[in-house]
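Let's sit down with a protein and look at its sequence and fold side by side. We need material for that, and I hope you will provide a protein of your own picking. Once you have written the record down, we can walk along the chain together.

***
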Amino acid sequence: MLLSKEYVGYLARQVTQKLIAGDFIETKNVPAVSAALNNALLEELQLEDRINDEVRLILEQYQDEMQRAGASYQEMFKKVKGELVRKYKAVL
């Protein structure tokens, strides 16, 4: 993940404050809204990490075939990642 968890928490609190100040949401429990937003942001930001891990696992299984075929690891990584992004309907 490119952003630290602390920074994501800060962003969640700031977004919550802006939503309340702009009358986009109304709440009596600001910390709960901030916590929910923080969890949602962390989940979304960690999606790419999970996809990258899955790509590495897949490529490990085909490592011998890739070497025989002379396939570039970086190019195969991009292709497999693109397929998984489409499969999960993710936006990265």
